[in-house]
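Quick start: load a record and inspect it. Here is BrnT family toxin:
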Amino acid sequence: MWVDERFEYGESRMIALAPQTEILYCVAFVDRSEVRRIISLRRANRREVKHYVENF
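Running the structure step on this input writes:
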């Protein structure tokens, strides 16, 4: 999990890689009060899969 610093969003957006069965997903989310709001969920690309394999 890491902070998405590509743009100024006005809030701290987080990005995480989440394995589900045999597919790796990339999820972007924000924490607002006691609620975690998912901004996007998509299949991880090759670069993200490589990062996951090398670090986890």
